[in-house]
UniProtKB/TrEMBL annotation:
UniProt protein name: Z-ring formation inhibitor MciZ
InterPro entries documented for this protein: MciZ
Top-level taxonomic group: Bacteria
Taxonomic source organism: Siminovitchia fortis
Pfam families linked: MciZ
Amino acid sequence: MRVNIGEDRIILSGKAWEIQALLRKYAKKHKLVKDWLESCTIIE
């Protein structure tokens, strides 16, 4: 499973059940994808 986080997007790649489990996990912490993106720190 890979999660690529950019400035304005999140790209999830992996098996369907892995992506669903990850989305359920983050849905408990963040109501919107925008909130999820704002909580991520981008390392350059």
